[in-house]
Specification:
globular; about 25% strand; 8-stranded mixed β-sheet; alpha+beta; about 325 residues
Length: about 325
């Protein structure tokens, strides 16, 4: 029997890990009638860690110890934890892979049972501190739906080989293929497109930039204001999903640039682990890039680097928005 390629094995392993995470984390949430898991556990350089995050951390360590193949030695880099090495005890220099992991992207959605959160993971060949997000060759993302939902979507990809998408029926355990297709529209009128502004920090400047962006792109709109719908989905993984399935046409997260401009460098930005699923979006046909110059993202595989990014459903939309967005960034944020 032929041995599966390591990339196929890694894809299967990440999906199984996230299946287990979904079962564990959603089960803990559903049993938490008093919302004790919504309490702050600790604050790190990267993010605020809530009690529900501790559930996922313990689950991950146990799963890797029990299930990770010793012939695929890996360093696991994830939010809220020092790097972990599997099999346990292996020296860092002997690991062949680096796994960037966000156990719960959208913790605040999960804590209050408000909207789906996501588990995100990407694996790259080990290059130590030289690793960049473009090195990720295998990625997976799995939906943690609200308690009233019956379906959980799971998307995974091997770079250059397209993506696999399935819908899990949480009532029966059945799975079915999931159709994933970004919007083919050539503009954002009468559709969802957003500049990320989750928190009060930098809110005014972000709002001004977005208002100027749309008025510059669509100056002849009836009433003087273009009709663009704004959706602040509080999870980067969820934003990527919305682009992939055609719900959103454009998203830009400019928080690191705005916070630097405003002297708010300690404010909460996206980090590389939030974009562990970017490889999947790109395999779906979504364009993910640096919002300033349109180049591919090049950030370390760590938990602390702030990341600004832009996502476009297709090249027609990107070609129209990219130069205007870049010009506004240079004028207002640099």
């Amino acid at each position: 029997m032929d041995t599966p390629h390591p990339h196929n094995r890694l894809q299967s392993l990440l999906c199984k890990l996230q299946d287990h995470l979904r079962e564990t984390v959603c089960g803990a949430r559903d049993a938490d009638a008093d919302q004790r898991l919504a309490r702050v556990d600790r604050v790190t350089e990267a993010d605020t860690i809530y009690r529900i995050d501790r559930v996922s951390e313990a689950c991950i360590t146990a799963w890797f110890n029990a299930n990770w193949p010793p012939d695929l030695p890996v360093e696991v880099v994830m939010e809220g934890s020092p790097p972990l090495l599997f099999p346990e005890g292996i020296p860092l220099g002997e690991t062949a892979w680096k796994c960037l992991l966000d156990p719960i992207d959208g913790t605040r959605n999960m804590m209050y049972d408000k909207r789906s959160a996501w588990a995100l993971a990407g694996i790259a060949p080990q290059r130590g501190e030289q690793n960049r997000i473009g090195d990720i060759v295998v990625a997976a993302m799995t939906e943690f739906p609200s308690s009233k939902a019956w379906r959980s979507d799971q998307l995974s990809a091997i770079r250059g080989e397209g993506l696999n998408a399935v819908a899990h029926d949480l009532r029966t355990g059945d799975t079915a293929p999931l159709s994933v297709r970004p919007s083919r529209a050539v503009d954002c009128l009468h559709a969802f497109a957003s500049v990320t502004r989750f928190f009060p920090d930098g809110l005014g400047l972000l709002g001004q930039l977005e208002e100027r962006l749309w008025k510059a792109l669509y100056p002849g709109s009836p009433g003087g204001s273009p009709i663009i719908f704004n959706d602040q989905y509080l999870t980067t993984g969820g934003q990527l999903y919305e682009l992939m399935v055609g719900h959103d046409r454009f998203i830009a997260d400019l928080r690191p640039l705005v916070f630097r401009k405003c002297g708010l460098q300690g404010s909460l930005s996206a980090h590389p682990y939030d974009l562990a699923g970017a490889c999947i979006a790109e395999e779906a046909g979504v364009i993910i890039e640096d919002p300033l110059d349109g180049t591919p993202l090049s950030v370390p595989l760590d938990t602390v680097s702030p990341v600004a990014w832009a996502g476009y459903a297709n090249e027609a939309i990107a070609s129209r928005i990219r130069p205007v967005l870049s010009g506004l960034i240079r004028e207002m944020l640099l």
